[in-house]
Every structure is written in structure tokens, then in C-alpha cells.
Input
Amino acid sequence: MSEHIPFHVPSLDEIDVSGVLEVLRSGWITSGPRCRSFEAAFADHLAGLPSGGAGSRSGQLHCVAVNSCTSALHLGLDAVGVRAGDLIVTTPLTFAATAEVIRYFGADPLFVDVDATTGNLTPEAVRYVLETLPEGRRERVRAIVPVHFAGNPCASDEFERLAEAYRLKIVEDAAHALPAARQGSRIGTFGDVTSFSFYATKTLCTGEGGMAVTSDEALAHRMRTMRLHGIDRDAFDRYRKGGSWRYEVVEPGFKYNMPDLMAALGLSQLARVDQFRERRSEIAEHYLTELTDVGEIELPRRAAYGDQHSWHLFTMRVDAHLRDAFIEAMAEEGVGTSVHFIPLHRQPYYRNRYGLKPQDFPVASSWGEREVSLPIFPSMTDAQVERVVSAVPKALVAAGKAVR
Ligand SMILES: *Cc1c(COP(=O)(O)O)cnc(C)c1O
Output
């Protein structure tokens, strides 16, 4: 059998390596100058035009580098004022991080089922849930946390209008959405705060890392303070020449800062992040074309007209009774796959705490039973892409035999 194709390989090269070595040799490895440069470069990236974009949203962006997207979500919810007892609207079709940060506050997730074609929350579904909430619960809703599932952007502009009408805050989980765009503006420029992930498998990787983005100066200040122990400025300021040894703890904050070692990777990766997306988009188009005639599968949607998909994931669906056998058969064919996601309402913690049933969120349940993600990473060769294409129908036949 030919060589195994992993589900994901990070795109790291010698430029990334030398950037990290430079930091190691500089004598300053934790948060400092690299971190600031990365934040500035990230803001420039988000303010820039996506390819084919019609126009960008104005206003200065503040980027707060942290050690994970989970931290960024936590800081975002804190900054917009989430408190114990609040209800936070979100999707069940997501990773654990999205909802656990809501629980950090003693607030509760209010899951809303996703759209069957994209796996995203829609403003219509959220509006319906808000309108039909019993008296006493509606007043508790404070924020919406949309996830750009697989990198296909949500209707962020419509969510903004909805949030305005209902006086809610928006903290976007954009762990999959770098780079992605909604109607010509990059994801990261919508809502109150946007959280990005630089985890090892994400579209920009620093190993572990994240970014909280906002155009609101006050929110940025709060997040900067809370990311480092609730201290009014970070270590770089304190120890640099002419700086003061004096500092003030204004809140019991967190230890969420991003080290310069990681920020160096962020800088070198960011320079290629659009190029990475172009290659993933090419692979996705190839899959969409070549797999279109394969029966028994559903392929992912392209982004809506005027939007840009990051193609972080290529999420196809098979019949529920075939799914597990299909994954095994793909492995037999030498192709690594993954599942996004086992929905949160079917995880023991949320299921038990909130008494949730699979049929409460039928679309998310169905995705959770049928979804399989194919490899889609920039360094995939054309030959590897071809092998995945030919493995899919073979694995479907093998899976059919296995479950009979
Ligand atoms: C990966 C992921 C996260 C968490 O990112 P970390 O940087 O690992 O904290 C959050 N939400 C979604 C949807 C993710 O896929």
C-alpha cells in the first residue's frame, strides 16, 4: 500500500524555524516585541481586502494575542459583561471550548439548531428561539456566540442587526475562519469580539495560541488587562528601559498571554495565510468536482455569493449507519479523516446538566452521526488529492459490505 495521507499536516518551513530561533537567541522569549508586531500585523491583515472583496469595514481594530482561542472566547465574554445566570445563544455543532467558556461564568448555553446545508447558526433560527422563549428566560439572554463552521462564514452582518434589535452582544468563535469574509469584509471585523485559534491543526498555527479582536477600545483594554493577571500593563512595559517596577492589580485576571516564541510563528505564518487558503480552496474545488457523482454522500456547500470560505475543513456526510465503517475503510485506503463534531448536546456533561435529547437538535444530531472530514492542508500534493478522491467510492463500497 502507498504512503499514508494524514488528516492534517501543519505548513511549517525554514522561515518559521528561523523566526523562532531568532527569538530564542534574543534573550526575550515571553510576551514582548514579537507579540506586539503580530498583533499589529493581524490587525492589518483583517483590515485588508480579501481577494475579490468589494470593500472593508472602517474603524481601527485592536488585536489581543493570547495562548488559545478558548482564552480569547473567555476574555471576550468577560469584556462584554457576561455574568452568572446569563443565557448565551450558541450552536451545539462545535468543539467543547465554545460552551465551556460560558460555564466558566456560571452562565448557561442556549443551544439553537444549525442550518442543514452549512452547519451554521442562522439569524432566522436564533430570532425564532428568542421570540418563543418563555417570559423570564428572554431577559436572561445576553450574548450570541456564532461559530463559522468549517470556515464557511455565518451571516455576521445579519447577526449584528439582530443583536442590535435585541440588545445582545456578539462574541464570534472564528476558530475556523482565518481567512474568511462576509460580503467583502474579513471575519474578525464583525460583532463585539472575534476569537481566532492558532492551535496545531488550524489554518495558522503557533502550536497553541489565539487572538481576540475588537474595534472597541474599552473592550480591548479590558481584555489586555485580564489576559495578564488583571495587571494594568504587561511584563514588557514593566521591565523595559525607563519603565517602572510599579504595577497595579485591578482585577483577579488570568494567565493568558502569548509568548514571543509563539508570536514569531504567528508572524511568519500570517504572511502566507492567504496563500495557504488558495491551495485549500483549490483542493476543495477538486473534491467538489470529482466527488459530485459519487452516490450516497453529501458534499459541503461553497460560501454564499460575495462571501469567502476559509476551507479549514472539508466536511462531507455519509449515511449514519455507514459512517464509522467508512472511516475505518478510509484508513484501510491510507487516508486519515476526522469528525466535526460530536455535538455538545450529546456529550454527557451538557446532556445530563440540561436534560437534552438528540431530537432537541435534529440537524446537529444528524451531522454528528454522518459527518466525515477529508484531509485538506496546503502541502497536499495533487497525487495525494487524487488518492483521496479515489479512496472515497472504494471506502463506501467496503463500508457497505462491512455493515451488512
Ligand atoms: C479549535 C477550536 C476552538 C478552540 O481553540 P483553542 O485555540 O484550541 O483553544 C474553539 N472553537 C472551535 C470551533 C474550534 O474548532
